[in-house]
Design goal:
The protein is α/β, with parallel strands linked by helices. The chain is built from 13 helices and ten strands. Helix content is about 45%, strand content about 20%. The protein binds 5'-O-[(R)-(carboxyoxy)(hydroxy)phosphoryl]adenosine and zinc ion (ZN). It catalyses: L-threonylcarbamoyladenylate + adenosine(37) in tRNA = N(6)-L-threonylcarbamoyladenosine(37) in tRNA + AMP + H(+).
């Protein structure tokens, strides 16, 4: 009971999350999602997301406190995602966190969303061995990070130069008529298909690209290649083998992600690879990462799917590490920073 009780608020995209942790122990993880409101647009609409956060935040806060069996007075610190993310969405969470911090006289910690995706794993697997490499793959980001000391930030090794991995899943699902969000449905559909049936391109893996972009990703060429392939089929009046296209597309994404992640571990002499973000829920990505990491004696850590997607627990988890490390809180005039660097 000596460990600090930390509450975390997440509103950077379309999930309103409030999590409560004590030390490394998760006590509550309340979530409200506006994903259904964005479905017919095929992607997150910022204005819609902001309004949904405003409606959902206080009820989600109440649910988290009830779930943990604590009151706001019991909380030792409030952490909130202050960036990167959608500007209007971030503002709702940051403004709410400040209000709670001011009213209850609690310290506030503005935290980086990507670092929070890394920190969440501590709730499941305990302290992260450092240094580690983290690969964060979601609808909004695809990054390789070097984690030397999580409480001191993370170092970017590379990122996508166009679409995020999850965005590629969403766009390909859309062109296959599978709905939104695309990741889970492609994951399911791919199980019925042959991942070797179509040779889709692997972005930024040619020797000339590796020189400048060894740890960067590119998925927009892959998406275009899938679109062209499907168009050609339709032009010829042939049926589109949805399962084979899904499986081959998914294989192209997972092949590149895991190859570059393992390369980043080896280049940095790192023995632990952490995978987070919504795409970490992908079943093929998990299998391929394990298979390839094992060959090099690298341990792979993937939090359970519920913790991989955006949530409040990840923000609370990072807040808890910051408090434990004695890091000074943020000021109450803390800004929301949509383009926050690492
Ligand atoms: O982390 P997240 O919930 O939100 C963002 O910060 O974007 O990630 C959502 C993304 C979506 O693009 C979704 O299609 C993808 O994660 N996703 C998956 C799977 N489950 C969710 N992608 C591939 N396979 C999955 N099983
Ligand atoms: Zn995220």
């Amino acid at each position: 009971a000596d460990e600090p009780l930390v509450l975390g608020i997440e509103t950077s995209c379309d999930e309103t999350g409030v999590g409560i942790v004590r030390g490394h122990t998760l006590l509550a993880d309340a979530l409200a999602s506006s994903v259904d409101q964005h479905a017919r647009f095929g992607g997150v609409v910022p204005e819609v997301a902001s309004r949904a956060h405003l409606e959902a935040l206080v009820p989600t806060m109440q649910r988290a406190l009830t779930e943990a069996g604590v009151t706001l007075a019991d909380i030792d610190a409030i952490a909130v995602t202050s960036g990167p993310g959608l500007a209007g969405a971030l503002l709702v969470g940051v403004a709410a966190a400040k209000g709670y911090a001011l009213a209850a006289e609690k310290p506030i910690y503005g935290v980086n969303h990507l670092a929070a995706h890394v920190a969440v794993d501590t709730l499941e697997h305990g302290p992260l061995p450092e240094p580690a490499v983290a690969m964060l793959v979601s609808g909004g980001h695809s990054s390789l990070l070097l984690v030397d000391d999580l409480t001191n930030g993370v170092t970017p090794l590379g990122a996508t130069i166009d679409d995020a991995a999850g965005e590629a899943f969403d766009k390909v699902a859309r062109l296959l008529g599978l709905g939104f969000p695309g990741g889970p449905v492609i994951d399911r559909t791919a199980k019925e298909g042959d991942r070797r049936s179509i040779a889709f391109p692997r972005g930024l893996t040619a020797p000339k690209d590796l020189a400048a972009h060894r740890f960067d990703f590119s998925f927009s060429g892959l998406k275009t290649a899938v679109a062209r392939w499907v168009e050609a089929r339709e032009r010829d009046g042939e049926p589109v083998p949805i399962a084979d296209v899904s499986a081959s597309f998914q294989e192209a994404v997972c092949d590149v992600l895991t190859a570059k992640a393992i390369d980043a571990c080896r280049a940095n002499g790192v023995g632990t690879l952490l995978i987070g973000g919504g795409v970490a829920a992908n079943s093929r990505l998990r299998v391929l990462a394990e298979e390839r990491a094992a060959k090099h004696g690298i341990e792979v850590r993937v939090p359970r799917p519920q913790l991989c997607t955006d949530n409040g627990a990840m923000v609370a988890a990072l807040g808890s590490r910051l408090v434990a490390a004695g890091v000074a809180p943020s000021r109450l005039d803390l800004p929301a920073d949509s383009a926050m660097p690492l």
